[in-house]
Structure formats: structure tokens, C-alpha cells
Amino acid sequence: MRESKIHPINVVALCGSLRQGSTTHAALIIALKGAEEAGASVELLDLSNYELIFYGAVDEKSDYPPDVIKLKQKVTEAHGVLLGSPEYHGSFSGVIKNALDLMGSEEFQNKVVGLIGVSGGRMGAGNALSMLRIVCSSLRAWVVPNDVSIARASEAFDENGHLNDPELEMRIRKIGRQVAEYATVMNSDKKANQ
Q: How many domains does the chain have?
């Protein structure tokens, strides 16, 4: 029997689109492949699979439903996080905002975060990415310097979720790799200081 390889670094991705077959989902799958290539174990946390409440719907965190606790735990246990969001009305999606609001610096402090924005228009998702960067800084996360904005997303991907542009695919994979690599460095520093 072969020993299974244990990955020291865990990278999760939060998909800010609930639509089945979304281009945000497809982009995150590519980024997770990059993280995996860098030696991380990976998991896509598709928010459509979680029964989340709106932030503020209950007074006490102890009253959160099980899926909120599960999501918070998965992000807490991760070393790196990829956030993917479509750009809606000049900002990131309410789905990802609510998920982030249900969490806080307890889950994100000193985590390495990579950002991917998807847009139906030709201008890309620059506003969504800028605002996500601000939110992540408020959560005390370390956001990698590069992000990826995918313009005209319906044209960028084929019907199987593959990108038509190899250079764009390389940039998305690189975000995943950077999150895994920076998380490895940050966590090796923590071990050295213990």
C-alpha cells in the first residue's frame, strides 16, 4: 500500500457566484490547479453548497447555523485563500460580501489571499478587485500583489470551462501558485520562530 502524500499547505477558494457553470467557478478551478502545482492541498468552497444566513440575522455567533460554522472552520484551517467574484454594479458580489461578513480577522489574519474578478463587460472587474483588496486588508490578510481581471467572461471561456487565451490561463494559475508559495514561506517562518 502506498503512503498518501500529506500536504503541509492548504489553499481554499471561495466562489462568489451562485450560478451553475459560472465563469467565476471555472477561473477558481484553474487557480486551484496552480496552487496544487505548488504543492498545496486545495478545496473549492462553492458558496451555493452552504446554507448561510445574512450577517446580523442572529445576535450571537453561537446561534449560527452549522454551515456557517463549517465555512468558518474551513477558512480558519486554510493557509491561503483565493477569492473569486463577478463584478456586479461596479463592486464584488453580495454573496462573497456576506460570506466575508460572517467571518472576520479570526479567520483571515495573516492568511495569504489571491483575488480573481470576472466581468461580462470589456472593462473587466477592476472595481471589484480594488474593493476586495480593501476588505481583505481590513481583515488583516496579506493579499498577493497581482490579481486577475477577466473581461468579457462569456467569450473568454468555452462551453467546458476552459479558457480560450493561454496567457490568461497562465496568469490565473500564477495567482494560485503565488498564494501557495507565499503561504509556505509565511508558515515556515512561524515554525522557525516556535
A: 1
CB-side neighbour CA atoms (13 Å) of 115: 26
Whichever domain contains 45, its CATH number is 3.40.50.360
121-144 tens-digit pLDDT = 999 999 999 999 999 999 999 999
Phi-psi domain of 61 (left: phi exceeds 0; alpha: psi -120 through 50; beta: other)? alpha
Buried b (16+ CB within 10 A) or exposed e, 53-74: eeeeeeeeeeebeeebeebbeb
> Over the stretch 140-155, which tens digit does the pLDDT of each residue have?
999 999 999 999 999 9
**Does residue 4 lie within any of the structural domains?**
no
User: Helical H runs in 42-165?
Assistant: 66-77, 94-102, 105-108, 126-138, 153-156
